[in-house]
Amino acid sequence: MPENEETEQPVEEPQGTDPAPEEDGSDAEPFDEARAKKAISKKNAEAKALRDRLKEAEPLLAELQRLKDAEKSESERLTDQLTAAQERADKATRAAVASKVEALAARDFADPEDAVGSLDLTAFVDEDGVIDTAAIKDALADLLKRKPHWARPDEGGPRRPVPDRTQGSSGNGNRSPSDPGEQFAGLLTQVLRGR
Hints:
By secondary structure, the chain is an all-alpha fold. The protein has helices at 2-7, 33-71, 74-105, 112-118, 133-146, 180-193. Helix 3 crosses helix 4 (112-118) and helix 3 (74-105) crosses helix 5 (133-146). The chain is flat.
């Protein structure tokens, strides 16, 4: 076994810019530019012909679909209409529930849309499409417990006065002038009188 290991060494191929042609007896054809251009133009012509056939077939396909739709039974058409109506009703119900949640959340939430986005709106509608207002109120109260920073700021607490810069005196009992030059002159006059 050790003798086999010594005889199996990797063969390094010479590194050159062009690989040497293999001389295994096969006839490799040289690149013919004219023949390649001819083959490409032939394939382009075939592709154009297929695109043209597709354009001719599209109106026929649309007509076939129209005929298939016309052949549908009355019950299939009614089923399709019922499905579309049910989707519209579901969408309207979701919008109504979202509006109800937003209206109820407006009292306690700084941004009522936060409540709409974080609650599962489908949980507040029964099979008949009636909105459960009590369940919404409970869910909103629970949401405020979990996220108290979403609550509306308390407006019933003590109010801080709004500062008014025109009030007060300038040291000599008069209102201070708004011109900085006059303010500086008044201050300089007070300093000189105080000497």
